[in-house]
Specification:
Blueprint lengths: L2 H12 L3 H4 L1 H15 L4 H9 L2 H11 L10 H17 L6 E5 L6 H12 L7 E7 L2 H9 L1 E2 L10 H6 E4 L2 E4 L1 H4 L2 E5 L14 E5 L9 H14 E8 L5 H5 L3 E3 L7 E4 L51 H9 L3 H15 L3 H13 L3 H14 L4 H13 L3 H22 L1
Parallel strand pairs: 1-2, 1-7, 2-6, 7-8
Antiparallel strand pairs: 3-5, 4-5, 8-10, 9-10
Helix pairs in contact: 3-5, 6-7, 13-14, 13-15, 14-15, 15-16, 15-17, 16-17, 17-18
Length: 416
Amino acid sequence: MAPIDFENLLRQAMGLDAGSVGSSTIERAVRSRMGATGLEQVDDYWCRLSNSAQELQNLIEAVVVPETWFFRDRPAFSVLVRLVMEERRSRRINSVLRLLSIPCSTGEEPYSIVMALLDAGLPPEQIHVDAVDISAQALARAKRATYGSNSFRGEDLNFRERYFQPYSRGSELMQWIRDKVRFHQGNLLYSEFRIADEPYDVVFCRNLLIYFDRERQEQAMRTLGRLLVDSGLLFVGPAEAFLASCSGFTSVNQAMSFAFRKNRKPQSEAAPEIRPVFVKAPKKPLPARTPSPVKADRLPLSVPPPPPAPPADLSTARSLADAGQLRKAAECCESYLRQHGPDAEPYYLLGVLRDAVGDRPAAAAYYRKVLYLEPDHLQALMHLALLIETQGDSAAAARLRERARRIEGHRKDGSS
């Protein structure tokens, strides 16, 4: 069997676009599973794979390597809390807030959602989170809720003291927090995907759609729209913001949160039919016109001014990125750099933007520029480590993560 056969099988099973992870990643996963099953011939492994749903699941597990941590991309959680609490206070809502996290990986995201809402003052009895992932192994780890240092990144780790207790190999989440999340194995691309009968107020679906081809991205967006209440909140990843804006969602315009609201559409209102307009070419060529001489008194008084330069404001760049206008956000960053010279933050944002469109070499180059200017930039270290790991250099990624952990330790010691 050829590599393309395994890629097509994974596309059918989980919607995976091989280009999003690289063919080499799939080849390594196949070799790993062949070693685990004791099969030396590719054709023999293909036969096993074609006749065993469990082995197909095992291959999916080998391809899907989760990379997550608590409160990853904090602006999303800050915006979630602010919008939810403002709405509930203004409308005096005290019903249960229903949230969905998909994919939930090893549990850091859904547990972060619960902790963020509790810190904001939402009563525990008003929080319900469903968490879904395709990986049975990831779900088993999520249910155990024991985490090592790699799950705790960034400068603000005070939540660990409030919600975790020491564990022999790290930290264990308190049981009453774990009880707020229900885990389910599922695939967003399955027809009639549904976890509960009631729709959700909030859905987190971040950095999943980037692995799908265009057809399955559109299918997934239709499903996400069906799962949300009218005006419900959808949180996506940076690379998925444009897709959300084209799929019946409107950005909430909160920088770097990549949060969208589902548009309200009355059911009785049918969408207008859009017909293409064709312009027929003339049967005979039109006679050429001789331009009339321009009189001196009709000459323009001045040359039209050039188009305005993109704004050189990083907050504007973040807002543009959040709304899915990635090209304009990049132009804004470049304009800022031209006016102000080398600076870590616009380089970091450019790295995120290039990462979002799949240009990994350019993203890595920007992250390295950040680290040249600001060697202790934790977010750039984390992003570069993940990017390098997806390219197969696990040793270099481990060195970067260790460097980030040392920086975190120094900062924590300095603040205590």
